[in-house]
């Protein structure tokens, strides 16, 4: 209390224009506090800004890694269906079973198709018999032509003899050696031989036309045989299509057909998933500036406890995903809100990786593309 009174008295006793004792020490301390507070606030603000820039990967923290969670494992999921309609006679496979190419999956009732094959084989035999008979008809027609040609030569020979008889009788009629009646008979015989020649020539021409008919008919019969052979092949194909087999090695999905069910042509019976896998990553268009084919990629799989796999960019879609949608947006009408489009990127899975066989189509993955990695050619695989 005495100290406070002393200080107050000292301030009161201080002349006008002079600094009270102790004031000079207080002002520098207040200045230092303000400076330290300003610096601390600036440091906190700068730290916050840097944290935001780092979180959003903005300069100066831009990364060469382009990542997205909009990615899925893909595979060649093949829907298996019959080409024919009928009742299911056999289903020798089960859900999720591994199969080899050519293994029987479903067998339809084939009794009708067997009978159709037998029917087409019988029709083919009929057409082949008709074709063989045509060959015999041609040989017969050729023989008839030879016969008619001989008959024509005989008619010509008879005509020459008749000419000689007529000339001789005309010479003898003058001296009465031949009667008028004999001359008339000779003339009639000569006219008859000329008519026989004309008749033989006509018969020969008829035979030639018959041969041509047989030749032309053979083309029709050969076409009928070809048609019957095609019908047999179609019947065989239909019979073989009663057996629905695996087109390639893979694993089946759920079996959607049961014994005794009636199925239509093209009905979905089950799905077959081959072993080949890849990843489709839907990258934002703002991430595509440095993405190139052949760049290294890593991705983690949610279903495998975020296990990391490696791969490479194989191909980049020629258009954004919205361009392939059924209903495309029309930005020329209504209000416009700019939305970052997605560009699908196909990524191969490097072979020989542990647990890669556990990848399943449809699994969610997180993809990271290293845009500064070495670009390597990716081998194309046949589907």
Tell me what the structure shows.
This protein is of the alpha+beta class and 383 residues long. It contains four helices and 14 strands. It has helices spanning 2-13, 23-55, 111-172, 180-240, and strands spanning 65-75, 78-80, 86-90, 98-99, 104-108, 243-245, 250-252, 262-263, 270-273, 277-284, 296-301, 307-316, 342-349, 364-370. The strands form three sheets. Strands 1-10-13-12-11-14 form a six-stranded antiparallel beta barrel. The chain has a four-stranded antiparallel sheet with strand order 2-9-7-4, with no helix packed on it. Strands 6-5-3-8 form a four-stranded antiparallel sheet, with no helix packed on it. Helix 3 (111-172) runs antiparallel to helix 4 (180-240). It is elongated and about 190 Å long. The protein starts with a helix and ends in a 13-residue tail after the last strand.
Brief write-up:
Keywords: Membrane, Transmembrane, Transmembrane helix. This protein is of the alpha+beta class and about 375 residues long.
N-to-C CA distance:
98 Å
Strand order of the largest sheet: 1-10-13-12-11-14
**Which structural class should the secondary elements be placed in?**
alpha+beta
Biggest β-sheet, characterized? 6 strands, antiparallel, barrel
Shape: elongated
User: Helical stretch count?
Assistant: 4
The value of Rg in angstroms is 53 Å
Low-confidence stretches: 1-8
- Following the backbone from N to C, one meets helices and strands in this order, namely HHEEEEEHHEEEEEEEEE
SS elements, strand count? 14
**Overall pLDDT:** 83
Instruction: Estimate what percentage of residues fall within beta strands.
Output: 15-25%
Helix fraction? 40-55%
Domain Multidrug resistance protein MdtA-like barrel-sandwich hybrid: 80-273
Transmembrane segments: 35-56
Region (Disordered): 1-26
Family: Belongs to the membrane fusion protein (MFP) (TC 8.A.1) family.
